[in-house]
From TrEMBL:
It comes from the Bacteria. One of its GO terms (molecular function) is aldehyde dehydrogenase (NAD+) activity. Keywords: NAD, Oxidoreductase. One of its GO terms (biological process) is aldehyde metabolic process. The active site is at 227, 261. Signal peptide: none annotated. It comes from Marinobacter nauticus (Marinobacter hydrocarbonoclasticus). Belongs to the aldehyde dehydrogenase family. Residues 15-452 form the Aldehyde dehydrogenase domain. This is Aldehyde dehydrogenase. The keyword NAD applies. GO terms for cellular component: cytoplasm.
Amino acid sequence: MQIASLAEVGLPNVSTSDTIDSTFAALKRAQLARRGSFTLEARIAQLDQLRDSIKRYESNIIAACAADFRKPAPEVKLTELLPVLQEIRHTKKHLRKWMRPKRVAASIGVWGTRSYVRPEPKGVCLIIAPWNYPLNLALGPLVSALAAGNGAIIKPSEMTPHTSKVIANIVAETFPPDLVSVIEGDAAVAQKLLALPFDHIFFTGSPAVGKLVMEAAARNLSSVTLELGGKSPTIVGPDANIKKAARYIVWGKFANNGQTCIAPDHVFVHRSIAAPFNEALKQQIGRIYGKTPEARQSTPDYCRIVNARHFQRVSSLIEDAKSKGANVFEGGITDAEENFIAPTLIANMSSDMDISREELFGPILPVIEFDDIDSVINKINDNPKPLALYVFDQNKSFARNIIERTSSGAAGINLTVVHFLHPDLPFGGVNNSGIGASHGEYGFRAFSHEKALMEDKHSLIHLLFPPYTRWVRRLIDAAVRILG
Ligand SMILES: NC(=O)c1ccc[n+]([C@@H]2O[C@H](COP(=O)([O-])OP(=O)(O)OC[C@H]3O[C@@H](n4cnc5c(N)ncnc54)[C@H](O)[C@@H]3O)[C@@H](O)[C@H]2O)c1
């Protein structure tokens, strides 16, 4: 389905930047009012409503993603709809257990008390989303925020305006504005929002903007979850199943046109298998996207770069690499009219090239040959900790060695990207690639405050209260001796 203009997506019923303060105040008031009555049933009803609306809007979502960056419909279903719908299903199934206060056994020191860890809603949360999975990364966190009993403001990305409008319409149709509101806009709008004392900020985007978000959050001591990016390395060992490695790497890299936070950024391949591996990569690209440049440009299965600015950025990366001696051995063809960049494979990368430093976030894959795995591990450890790291090898100890000696948000063995789909795995980065985690119970906990609750039953702790008579002092000394 083609969308010619934003108006066709539907009339937005959405807060604008002028109404930021009043929207926030309304959410705050409503959140306090409903605090005691936000039951399991109420939360599940909201999740059901969200699921129904998403399903009702399915064709609009597909059309909007096509209008924004020619994202293929099957990719929209697999990477935008499925993760959010699965998150709803999984959350509904487990929410009762997650919400239940967890009994904690009394320790000797507080014998005679009863204790619980009681998750409570953080309050009013801000969700700032990126453009690359515009629906998934706006509504996925919303599922966790609602499950945990919060109100939320969503600020979708201005770079995918059609999808942003659809999100606004879904939310306006599904929730009262004092429970969930969408505020559309750019960085300036995000900055206005960030000045407000949100109870939690869930940000997905680049590490550079993540730092600004954390700085702004610090002013109000708002807690943060930062889902960031970086250069996720992939290592193909000497005993890799070459065909399988190429299949997963080509899919993980070129789906969404390389604009995936957990896409393999670059590949280290053992020199002994480099030639057949490079050939296998080329074969996979041909098999999926077509044998000729024309076929690759016309296939409906290949997404586009999101806008002219990013097209320019990614094209310049290729030009910079070429001018410094890189060998573009597949692709490299670009068409500015369509923000099209062919699936591109690059050899002979060197440290003076921009592709060796920047997160590529586009359809270019540098392939680097190695002899000694220690040098690869050292290189990874010399750089900021990545969001994901992938290893392909049949030999389990090869992967184990790398995973033990490096730090990354997630690690995958003989696959790429798929870990995103497991609702029981924490999804998140580490330091430069992120702080905190999302998905399933991890998402619920990100949006919850774990309140410590203790009740006195028949404890003897009052025997240690002042005045500090000789008897009390003796008791305290004994307590320190026994418990310390
Ligand atoms: N870890 C993850 O789950 C994940 C998922 C997708 C994308 N990413 C990362 O996101 C990046 C690409 O997305 P992007 O280009 O939309 O990121 P971005 O950081 O430029 O923008 C993300 C959001 O922040 C807002 N923003 C931009 N500048 C801002 C500023 N100065 N102050 C406040 N808000 C501002 C944008 O309007 C947008 O809504 C990549 O680095 C990618 O790896 C991470």
